[in-house]
Amino acid sequence: MNIVFKLWAIIIGLVSTIHMLVVFYSEAFLHHSWTFYETNIPLATIEFGMALTGLGMLIIFFVQLIPGPSKRIPKHKLTPQERLNLLGRL
Which phi and psi (to 5°) does residue 70 adopt? Predict the structure, then answer.
């Protein structure tokens, strides 16, 4: 269940960032609104830049999660006694 909540949080963060990029792009550069109208165009441009920076940080975060040749998964060798303990036998 913990993985589901983490995945949900990542998806919600990504979708909301993309939504805010579209909204603030529309307000700052096309001068029409989707949700509310921001009359201060420089403020809408700054908000667009903040959303763009947030998307860039999310992309950097996701790229760091991709396993590469330098990221090896450690292989643990268990002794026969440890294997039996994992099965619940002594």
Answer: -85, -15
